Every structure is written in structure tokens, then in C-alpha cells.
Amino acid sequence: MTNQIIIQNAKIYTEDKLIEEGSIVLQDGKITEITEDNTELDTSFAELIDGTGYSVIPGFIDTHIHGANGADTMDATEKAIDTIANILPQEGTTSFLATTMTQSKENIEKALSNVAKYKNKDSNAEVLGIHLEGPFININKKGAQPGEYVIPPNIEQFQKWQDIAKGKIKTITVAPECDQEGTFVTYLADNGVNVSAGHTDAKFSGIKEAVELGVHQLTHICNAMEGIHHRDIGAVGAPFHIKTLYAELIADNIHVIPEMMQIIYNNVGSERLILITDAMRAKWLPPGNYELGGQPVIVSEDRATLKEGGSLAGSILKMINAAKNMRSLEGVGLTDIIQMTAVNPAKQIGVYDRKGSLAVGKDADVLLIDDMLNIKYTICKGNIAYKGE
User: Fold this and answer.
1) What is the pTM assigned to this prediction?
2) Residues 264/256, Cβ–Cβ less than 8 Å
3) 77 and 140: one domain?
4) CA end-to-end distance (rounded Å), the chain
5) Catalytic annotation, pick one of 278, 336, 363, 365
6) Alpha-helical regions (H) of 301-350
7) Residue 112 forms beta bridges with which residues?
8) Is residue 278 annotated as a catalytic residue, yes or no?
9) Do residues 218 and 153 both lie within one domain?
10) Cα–Cα nearest to 365, from 105, 164, 88, 117
């Protein structure tokens, strides 16, 4: 018997239109049918979910997350990735990039090897690959990345790491000004890696040159980069003018305050923004003392900061809360949320053929939500992973 779920009588945000009241059929991990006519469906062997008063949207894709619920990608264990993947559906995330950080080469290699051999589990968020954040960054903008492990861009080093990762490094954060000849960024772009400028001291002109070489996005816009000035709009202003440049955004109202989030949204738009959490292991856990990359971190009710220096140390943001924070801004509708949490990240890492939208043949990664963006169901590849209250 096949595993079939049918959500009926719901508002469905498909890839190309909005169905005001319809049904979506999920079978054996795929979306097999989307219809506006419930009467023609065979429901004999299906688990039926009444979607009356709810909306069906694609599951969230978090392409920049270090950890959650006590685990971190750098722990380099199967249990750590299991822990992260198991908790994420509660915040609407159905797939993600396990994100590393600047550390010793040995520790990075252990983390890459661990993700490379990791087998995804049913009813968990799916690991789509790796986001390599650092160590090819600018030490002047290291933020919470340990400065002693920062190294210059090196093609041979990356090749070794991509081999260890079995090709699963999908995104890399790099400071493009540290690649003085431009050969590193060019190599990455030519080999299908999504190159993101971050932890960078580049001015606007430097980002513009980097885009011409193959940089496609900014890592956590506004954080660990040059801000807007009236004589140089810096990295932050780059996507305002460069219409091919995407930007990650930590929409927790702390890394970027709501007023700046509104300015960014007004100038970049949902077409090129990517909501991320950049979360560390303390997400889903109570306030207390934790660590990030071997550095002591103090976690309060709403933020994580390094014990030494007080820099923000990743976040404890949940994706559903990022979506709610963005939804509260002027001009942001549910279709914009879908664009920023599903469509854009899927396209940036090359999985839009199977993720990021609701269409027949795509993976059955689905959220059932109410008008306030509260989650009723999270479904990962056709398996119910979370039921809300």
C-alpha cells in the first residue's frame, strides 16, 4: 500500500497560481496531484487532512544554519545532524544546508566528512548539502568566527574539502577582497558553487567586481560587512543597485532592526531576499551558557552573544518567526514569504527542480498554516513531521 496524504478544502499556493479552495495529493514523497475539484479524487486509502481555513505553502529551506537543540554541524556526528534535522520541522523548515564555520582544517574536514556520509531520515528535515562559512574571510570582519583559523582563499584547499564532502558544498561564504587575483571566486562559480560575499571589508566597487567574477549573493546582509555611507554605499547597498545580487537576511529584529529590514525589503524585494536563521546550538533550548566554535556564548531570551566582546554569535531564530517578522512589514504578503523562504533558496543552490514550490512531481515538502502563520502541519517528503496545536 502506498503512503498517501490528501489535504482538502485548503487555499493552495501553487507554483503558478493561487487555488482558493482545492486539494493537494501527496504520495510516496511526491506531490502527485493538485486540484480544484475534490469530487474526482480517490480517497479510499489516503490519510485525509481537512484544510478548511488554512493555506498550503512550500516548506521552508534554511540555507544557513549551524545548529539547534544542543547540536552543531561542527560536532561532526550523525547524532548532531539527526538532532538538528529532527527539530527543524517544528519551525516549518523541511530542508537545510548544514553550515560549518571558521575552525581548524582538521575540524572542518571532520564536519564535511560527516555530512557527506549522512543518510537522511524519514519525517526529518532533509540535509541538502553544506554551506561552508569561512575560513576564507576577512579577519577584520570575522564577527563570531574564530580569528586564529582565518586563512587566505586557496583553490587546492577547497578542492580537497569538496572531495571530502563528496561534492555537497553548495554555498560558500568568502571575503572576495581577499581573493586579490579573482581566481578563487571564478573557480567556484565555474564549478557550480553558490558564492556568497560575507565577513567582508569590500566597498561597493569591490562587491561590484566580485559579482562580475561570479558572486551571486551576500551572507547575512548588514552583518559583518560595510554599511551604507553617503560617499560609498558599501556591501549593504550593493543589492540595491546590482539586480542580479541576492541577499541573506537574519530577520530576528536584532541582527537587523525592523526599520532597516523595511528599507532592505523596499530596495531589494522578495525576488532576491533569502530568509535564514544562522542559528547556533542554543536554538530550542533555555537561556544559559553555550559555545560556538569553541568560544563561550551567553544566550538570553532573544539573542546569543560572545562572552568576550559581546558580538552577536549567530542567532536562536526560528524560521517561522523570521517569516512572521517579515510578514509584519509594509507590503509583504504570503507570496513574498514563499519567495524568500522557499523559491529563492531552492534556486540559489540548484534544487528548484524538486524543491521550493508546490507543483506536481516535486518533493512533498508542505506546510499547512493559518492566517497568522501558525503551523498546523509540517510534512517532509510526504511524512507528517510535526502537528501544531
Assistant:
1) 0.97
2) yes
3) yes
4) 29
5) 278
6) 319-327, 334-338, 344-348
7) none
8) yes
9) yes
10) 88
